[in-house]
Each structure stands twice: as structure tokens, then as C-alpha cells.
Amino acid sequence: MRIKICGAVRTADVELLAGMDVDLVGLRHGIGGARGGLRTVHPGRSELAADAFLRLSAHVRATRRLRPVLVTTVHDVAWLHDVLARSRVRWVQLHGHQSPGAVRALKSAFRPWEEPVTVVKVLRVRNGDCLERALVADYERAGVDLFLIDAEPGGGQSGQGQQSPTEPVLRVADRLTRPFLLAGGTSARRDTELAPVVRHPLFHGIDVDGETRVGNGGLHPERIEAVRHAWRTHWVKEWMTPRRSAATGRFEVADPVPAAPVPLPYGVRVPFLPRGCARQAV
Fold it and tell me: Any idea which UniProt keywords this protein has (predicted)?
């Protein structure tokens, strides 16, 4: 299970996360189409200017255990390729309404001998429905490696910690053939409520932002640890607990990998799995 913390803006944030059990760090650059100038996206969250993004992404890579993720809403493939090439960041979260064609063009923009880019595409859940439902198959054919299922308020921006109801999330997840991250209200108190999502074979981890912050918007180590402990403990518990099989009537430990293995995104480390949950070769 992977944990992504979004919205780092200072080197102190990166140093804090490097000392914790976190895998991915989201760096916002090019939100709302803007390409420069530090500006507030919404309370407690800031977009990085170009030089700040380059400096902070290099700091993340220097930790050798954290992986930086460019979080952007920009549609311009040439701009995206330029930013990724200059920063040497190879994970990008497309948090806007980028088309499947843009995904395909971005994936093909990197030469075969270059390190490929891992594309994470947001899927918004609003009023119990997925706004991009009709495009899921197109995104997968275009080369999306990982989806991020995020709640969205009635008419606003996603990524503001809205709680994703379990049933709509599962309906979206059942349409996928790629792994997904869960975002939207993934606090330490909701790990049990969202247990059916954790048990989904394509569940890959959580994306957290507001739940790890204090009043001034800064990252708080105790909140990060509370989220990490609750979700990782619950994930291991779900996959280690034997459950009665409907087919055989015997208690068995479920295999979190589906019968048709899904290739993991480039660079993703295979997590430790308890005995009986061995990952199939891909």
C-alpha cells in the first residue's frame, strides 16, 4: 500500500516526510493553467513557481526514498514534457480535464531509451457519480498507469478533502483494470469505514493532504503518523485475516492481485505481502 502526501512547499516539508513511512510527495505546479508565481490555490495550499518546483523536486529525489509527483491541470503536452524533462520527475498527476489524447501524446513524447513517465489520472466522484466514467476505457488504452479516485463537491475543485462515499468509489473501481489511489477524506478515523475499498484488488494506496495539516496549513508529523498507522495497519489486517470462501466454504487468505495481473506503474516497489498473499509475476 502506498501513501502519497500532497502539497509540499518547503524543504522542511520534504525533510519531515523523508523521515516518515511515506512513498510519494505531490508538488503542485501549473494549477488552473498558471505557469509561474506562487499563489494560493485554496486555504493552506500553494502552487510552486517554476524555479521552486525544480528546486523542491530535486530535493525530493535526493532523499532516494521519496518519489516526487508533478500535480497539474495544464493540458499543453509540450509544456508538461518540458517540465518533466528539466526536473527529471517521472510521475505526473493529471488533476484537470486532460483528454485521453493528451495522455497518449505525453507517454509517447519520451524516447524508448528514456525513463518512461508514470501517469496518474484523477477520476472525480460528484453526487455519487464519476464525471469521467465514459472515458475510463479510453484513458486506459491511452496509457494511464494509475487512477486517483477523488471526491468533488457540487460545483467546485476536487482535492479539498471531501469524503468519498464507499459505494460510488467501489462502482468506479469495478470499472477499472488499473490500480487506483483513494483521495477525499482519507483521515485516520475513516480507515474502518472504507474497509470495502481497502479490500478491492486494485486498491493501491491513499492520497492525503488536509488531514495531515494543522491550522496554519503546515504539515504536522503526529497527524501524518496517525494516518499512516491507521491505514497501513488496516491494510495488513484486511489481507492477513482469513475469510470464508463462498466457493469452497473454507477459510482462506485473499489474494490482493486479480487473476489477470495488472502491470504496476514504472518504478513502484512491490510491497511486502503476508504469507499466502504472494504477488503473481507480471
Answer: Isomerase
